[in-house]
Design goal:
By secondary structure, this protein is mainly alpha-helical. The chain is built from 14 helices and 4 strands. About 20% of the residues are buried.
């Protein structure tokens, strides 16, 4: 039995407990005090490296849980500057994230030239969306966001989307998330998108396919579909193949749903470029 003198609130000897013991010396409190001591390098560097990895797809130190002298950072000056700046601003995560995402390196394109090397963060790394990110993207791409957006600021519309369709998002994440870290798409996701009535209903009821079906100009329809789902205009080849598909005898609404499905199940849709 622990010595009650070591506790501010001593442990109870009775089988049924009515209170939580409180020791005079708390290992957890000491650990936290040590971690957020601005002079200690470990916590601030690890925190910065983790946030950097979440935003870029890889850390300044890789693997991110192997920070030691035998595994130096790829950009030591960057890690040290951000760690010191993070501590100087009282470990404010919002400040750290804002600092990183407003840098030139975060805003680089994923297009790589011969003079660039991806390991040096000279271009953006193409990486898969997480299950949660992909689920929200599906609602936005299929038109659910458009129905909420009129009259609302963008952030308010996004919040309303996630609140109003919380159950749908939860179910989508269950189907899409492989629980791997970093996230990796797999057979489960592919089967869900190919065979699940839930995914078909998501497209059918989202609003985008219905809006496309009302458009008589095939060129405008294809342009709108690409902009809505992939946020870019179609290439000449893509436009030609889509026009050829629309010329086939089929119900127009069904054809539009198939176009949305094809764009959403493409590799481009599920990757962050």
């Amino acid at each position: 039995m622990d010595d009650p003198a070591d506790y501010l609130v001593a442990p109870e000897t009775a089988k049924e407990k009515t209170r939580v013991p409180l020791p005079k010396f708390s290992r957890r409190a000491e650990f936290i005090a040590t971690a957020i001591n601005k002079k200690e390098p470990f916590f601030k560097r690890a925190a910065v490296n983790y946030v950097w990895a979440q935003l870029f797809g890889r850390g300044l130190v890789e693997p991110i849980d192997q920070m030691h002298e035998a595994n130096p950072p790829s950009q030591p000056e960057v890690l040290q500057f951000l760690a010191d700046d993070f501590a100087a601003h009282d470990f404010d995560l919002r400040y750290l994230i804002r600092t990183i995402v407003t840098t030139h390196v975060y805003q680089l394109s994923s297009r790589q030239t011969k003079a660039q090397t991806e390991g040096a963060f000279a271009c953006s790394q193409v990486r898969p969306l997480s299950g949660a990110q992909l689920a929200v993207s599906m609602l936005v791409a299929t038109g659910y966001y458009e129905a909420l957006k009129p009259g609302l600021p963008a952030d308010a519309a996004r919040g309303k989307l996630e609140t109003q369709y919380a159950a749908t998002l939860t179910n989508l994440v269950k189907e899409l998330d492989s629980a791997a870290e970093p996230y990796q798409p797999g057979i489960r996701e592919s089967l869900f998108e190919t065979n699940s009535p839930t995914f078909a209903n998501l497209i059918g009821k989202g609003g985008l396919a219905a809006r496309l079906a009302t458009m008589k100009d095939d060129g405008a329809l294809i342009q709108d579909a690409f902009l809505s789902v992939l946020s870019r205009a179609p290439t000449h080849d893509e436009r030609g193949r889509m026009k050829e598909y629309l010329q086939r005898p089929s119900e127009r609404r069904s054809a539009c749903e198939e176009i949305v499905w094809a764009l959403m199940t493409s590799a481009e849709f599920r990757f962050n470029h």
